[in-house]
């Protein structure tokens, strides 16, 4: 049994870039169908910052797909990419402002598609609050990464040079580098 507590819902109500950085070193948890809990430290994230961010799905406004992004922070935004990979995002900010953090990787899974496949995350989590009651949640970190890196997001060249080059991807290279 973990001694760490789930992060409070208020954690997700900050600026998306701040949440993306602060998620590093926290633990993504999922209750498996057998009842066991799998935990893995988050070590890579990407921030998507509202309708003005041309790499953000909400840049086209509110749609059936993006409506969950306009909810209060702490909700899962899960969508299918290329018709085969589920992508797990965490909605941030206050209700009405569409921002989300893509969980790109953990100590056990490198890449967002491998992460969701490995954990069994599907579209069934879309719109659910991150909470143990919903079988998917994030626990507080035991410490903070020693060195956090920032760079351009991956696979968003379609957003043009201004938005594709923003340093909205955050990572740390060694999970054991937490203090």
Would you mind describing this structure in some detail?
The chain has helices at residues 16-22, 112-119, 160-164, and strands spanning 27-31, 37-49, 76-81, 85-91, 99-106, 136-139, 149-151, 169-171. The protein is an alpha+beta fold. The chain has a single domain (9-173), classed as Methylpurine-DNA glycosylase (MPG) (3-methyladenine DNA Glycosylase, Chain A, Roll), CATH 3.10.300. Strands 1, 2, 3, 4, 5, 6, 7 and 8 form an 8-stranded antiparallel sheet that branches.
Supply database-style keywords:
3-methyladenine DNA Glycosylase, Chain A; alpha+beta; 179 residues; globular; eight-stranded antiparallel sheet
Named at the architecture level, the CATH assignment is Roll
CATH class annotation = Alpha Beta
| Number of DSSP strand runs | 8
Summed over residues and divided by their number, the pLDDT gives a mean of 93
CATH topology group = 3-methyladenine DNA Glycosylase, Chain A
CATH superfamily: Methylpurine-DNA glycosylase (MPG)
Number of domains: 1
Rg on CA atoms, Å:
15 Å
How many angstroms does the end-to-end distance come to? Answer: 21 Å
Return the string of H and E elements: HEEEEEHEEHE
Helix/strand-derived class? alpha+beta
Query: How many H/I helices?
Result: 3
Low-confidence stretches: none
**Morphology call:** globular
- What is the makeup of the main sheet? 8 strands, antiparallel
Question: How big a fraction of the residues is strand?
Answer: 25-35%
